[in-house]
Amino acid sequence: MSGRSKLLKVVLLGDGGVGKSSLMNRFVSNKFDSQSFHTIGVEFLNKDVTVNGDNYTMQIWDTAGQERFKSLRTPFYRGADICMLTFAMDDRKSFENLPMWKREFLYYADIQEGSPFPFIILGNKVDMPNREVSDDVARSWCTKHGNVPYFETSAKDSINVELAFTSAVSRFREMEDQLEIKQVHTTNSVDLSRKAKSSGVGCCS
Ligand SMILES: Nc1nc2c(ncn2[C@@H]2O[C@H](COP(=O)(O)OP(=O)(O)OP(=O)(O)O)[C@@H](O)[C@H]2O)c(=O)[nH]1
């Protein structure tokens, strides 16, 4: 196992209410709050993981999904190493909005459409009985959009949450050599990570 931990900036995106904050809190603190409030702007938490013997600090940026907070979240896309696009199983519209979220991310992260980038798709709230997106439909969307790994999760019942986050790191490792490195990303990433390390939790509005 190597000693030093590599910082990975992970951005969680998706419609308001799909469970992004709940997924982050389940993964980082193993907690679930059924009264979770809408995020305003962006919040982040750090979590250390070891994948294939290498140490990483995942700096997870939980963004506000509601349209009215768009201008507060988009400045934080730059420097991302991984993007986790999230929808809710019981909300077809949140699945149909995935291409919009992907476009928004690529545009504000300043990554060219079609460039290799580690995306992960999460279908959250798999515990809900009223499912509106089938496994087949979700999987074929992921295949069509670059064989993106897909996980059906429940922050509530703690299903596949840890697996999804650690697989995101594996996806990053697979693609690391192909990623487009831009000076501007590196600079922003360093600035933001310094801020994260000094405060641990942040909220930017
Ligand atoms: N049944 C069920 N409910 C969940 C799950 N994850 C989150 N919720 C609930 O869904 C609601 C919204 O969850 P949040 O985590 O606040 O959603 P969000 O995507 O962060 O929302 P924004 O901050 O508005 O972008 C809350 O009432 C959660 O308790 C899940 O896996 N299953």
TrEMBL record:
Its EC number is 3.6.5.2. Its cofactor is Mg(2+). It is found in: Cell membrane; Cytoplasmic vesicle, Phagosome membrane. It is an enzyme of class 3 (hydrolase). It is a lipid-anchor. It catalyses: GTP + H2O = GDP + phosphate + H(+). GO terms for molecular function: G protein activity; GTP binding. GO terms for cellular component: cytosol; late endosome; lysosome; phagocytic vesicle membrane; plasma membrane. Its main location: membrane. Belongs to the small GTPase superfamily. Rab family. PANTHER family: RAB FAMILY (PTHR47981), RE17845P (PTHR47981:SF1). NCBIfam families: small_GTP. This is small monomeric GTPase.
